[in-house]
Amino acid sequence: MTSQFKVISISYKTSSLELRERIALNEDECKALLLKIKDVFGISEVVVLSTCNRTEIYYLADKDCSIDLVKLLSAQKGVDSALILSHIETFSEEKGLEYVFEVATGLHSQVIGDLQIPNQIKNAYQWSADMDMAGPFIHRLMHSVFFVNKRVVQETGFRDGAASTSYATVETMESFLHLLNEPKILVLGLGEIGQDVVKTLDNKGYTNFTVTNRTYAKSEELATTLKCDILPFEDVKTELKKFDIVISSIRTEEPFIDLETVKGLGHKSVKYFVDLSVPRSISPDIQKVPGMVLYDLDEIQVRANRALEGRKSSVPAVKNIITEAVSDFGDWSNQMVVSPTIQKLKGALEQIRKEEMSKYVKSLSKEEAIKMDKITSSMMQKVIKLPVLQLKAACKRGEAETLIDVLNNLFDLEKVNS
Fold first, then answer.
1. Which among 158, 192, 216 is the end of a domain?
2. pTM given for the model
3. Residue 54 labelled as part of a binding site
4. Is the dihedral of CA 147, 153, 156, 159 positive or negative?
5. How does residue 300 score in pLDDT terms, banded at 50, 70 and 90?
6. Are residues 130 and 186 both part of a single domain?
7. How far apart, in whole angstroms, are the C-alpha atoms of residue 88 and residue 13?
8. Using 50, 70 and 90 to split pLDDT, how confident is the model at 304?
9. Number of compact structural domains in the chain
10. 51 annotated as a binding-site residue
């Protein structure tokens, strides 16, 4: 079955953010695509993963359906299929399996060891299961992926620390959060970094934050998705006193929040500022006001880089875990190939046993018949044990097909089980 496994990937490594945005799929769109794949191509085991960094299709099929599946995606999203096809990567068999494990652990994330990807994989798997598109292979693969992620957390330092600016920012905030009573958070600026911070806050379960941006529509779009509050940008300075934590990533040539702005807030109205802007959007002078603490981008990056280096040092250990998992999964997959033959052989021998039993059972007492049934059943179990072991061993040697043919011929399995 491993030989039937295939992967189609459009990721940040092969395409622009603009293209990834155009083909990104939400839950309903993923489910709709799953149904189309089933209806049009008859493929019954599929997972569709779509994040800000990648849209990928993992599927089981006898032939390569990459071009056709991309055309189906392009039709659903209204994007020229030739454009998508020029940016895809495809993987199959063990390379495909290895790739899925690497994606799921965060080895292929923009921020190595991304903490969000395991949950994104779980969601994609759940949607596949909801649509009855997760068969034995996908179920086994996904649970193997979850087990590998568990091992990575328990056995390596790959997930330790905040290795992105947004995670490092929130982790820094959490270091002093316990000092504040129900703090209110303002995220100022919704460029790429600002949006990442907001999504990280949301992923971590924070609800007491407000967003603001020069373009109100951008704030509105994000707030609609995440159910957070909006502050009109023109009201920031007058409303600043309401917030305990301000995280700023706006672009400005001069500090947007300066000493005079903070002086006008009243004593200790705002306690903590985090400035992620280049050039700075918050003047270092604000720390002259008692109770005001400022963290700049350099301090945040030091924390992030420290974590990133720690994660990189754990990559060999993560790859070793993945290699073991791929090997184990390959063994299981190969055994699935011989499973029908094993069942047929058991059925053939059971049929012979019952036919022979029927010749003598009428002349036996009830107790004798029970004894005879137990004895012959035990004999059949011992007879079949060696062929089953040999089949499984042949799987590992890549010689299963030869032994399957031999058993089919010896026991005429197709005829017996027809």
1. 158
2. 0.66
3. yes
4. positive
5. confident
6. no
7. 10
8. confident
9. 3
10. yes
For 97-129, the pLDDT digits (tens) are 999 999 999 999 877 888 778 989 999 999 999
Q: Is residue 327 part of a domain?
A: no
Share of the chain above pLDDT 90, in %: 49
- How high is the mean pLDDT of the chain? 88
Would 325 be classed as within a structural domain? no
The answer to whether 194 and 188 are in contact (CB under 8 A) is: yes
In which domain, by residue range, is 380 found?
Answer: 339-416
Determine if residue 343 is labeled as part of a ligand binding site.
no
Q: What is the band of 266 on the pLDDT scale with cuts at 50, 70, 90? A: low
96-110, 135-149, 353-367, 379-393: segment of lowest average pLDDT: 379-393
Q: Answer yes or no: do 293 and 175 share one domain.
A: yes
Q: Which residues are designated catalytic?
A: 52
Residue 130 is labelled as binding a ligand: no
In whole angstroms, what is the distance from residue 395 CA to residue 347 CA?
A: 21
Known binder of ligand: residue 193? yes
Torsion of CA 329, 332, 336, 337, to 10 degrees: 80
> What does the alpha-carbon distance between residue 260 and residue 254 come to, in Å, rounded to a whole number?
13
Label each residue of the chain as H, E or C: CHHHEEEEEEECCCCCHHHHHHHCCCHHHHHHHHHHHHHHHCCCCEEEEECCCEEEEEEECCCCCHHHHHHHHHHHHCCCHHHHHCCCEEEEHHHHHHHHHHHHHCCCCCCCCCCCHHHHHHHHHHHHHHCCCCCHHHHHHHHHHHHHHHHHHHHCCCCCCCCCHHHHHHHHHHHHHCCCCCCCEEEECCCHHHHHHHHHHHHCCCCCEEEECCCHHHHHHHHHHHCCEECCHHHHHHHHHHCCEEEECCCCCCCCECHHHHHCCCCCCCCEEEECCCCCCECHHHHHCCCCEEEEHHHHHHHHHHHHHHHHHCHHHHHHHHHHHHHHHHHHHHHHHHHHHHHHHHHHHHHHHHHHHHHHHHHCCHHHHHHHHHHHHHHHHHHHHHHHHHHHHHHHHCCHHHHHHHHHHHHCHHHHCC
Was 381 annotated as part of a binding site?
A: no
Q: Residue 194, annotated ligand binder?
A: yes
More confident residue, 7 or 17: 7
Q: Is 28 annotated as a binding residue?
A: no
Domain-ending residue, one of 309, 329, 353: 309
Residue 68 has pLDDT above 90, yes or no: yes
Q: What distance in Å separates the CA atoms of residue 94 and residue 96, rounded to the nearest whole number?
A: 5
